[in-house]
Amino acid sequence: MLHSAKGYEAHPHPTRLSDFILGSQDGLVNVLGILLGLCAASATVHIILIASLAALGAESISMGAVAYTSTLARRRLYLSEVQREKDEMREIPDVEREEVREVLVEWGYTGADLDDLLNRICSNPRAWVEFMMAFELKLAPVKETQARDSAVVVLLATVAGSAIPILPFLVPNLALLYRVIATVVLAAVTLAFVGLYEARTTGGRPFQNAAQMILIGLAAGFAGFLIGLVVGVH
Q1: In the chain, how many domains are there?
Q2: Among residues 28, 172, 176, 215, which is most buried (max CB within 10 A)?
């Protein structure tokens, strides 16, 4: 149950998945809402394209920056708590040992098994501190490159997600109604695939995940449409 990676590094795949979903869904939903709002407000295709591309650029950079700073903050918190635990293990080892015992008791260990496992953990400083981080503080390790990696994944996923609703507006000589329909269909299909990918990766329910993604995305797009409709009549 203890971390086996070198140092205090987490396995990257769960983070990559959450970063991908965060960026792609956020980018798609935001641009979809802006685009439908402008359509409802009777903006020209030229204006819609400019606004949507501007939103793509700003949203992607913003999301990448937020991913970087938030992940960096989590790493700093984790490392500071590691140092605090090490200090306490050195200064008040009996108290720290008792905290390990309490966790093991909660897991159902008693008697000789409890004492044996307690001694094994507390005789290994690395195992001891990682045990405390994981099972007392409930903090996951953050590797040194994770902030950079998260920023890149979120930025690229946001660009890709934001570009999806814009594609029909790049097709020349297409009626605005058809552009809107194509945009909504593309957005729904993309969100469904993101939901299916998440379900496949995490072992969730494919159709439930897909439906949830579609519902969230189209609800945000519809909100943008209503705002554009209300503003456009004034």
Answers
A1: 1
A2: 28
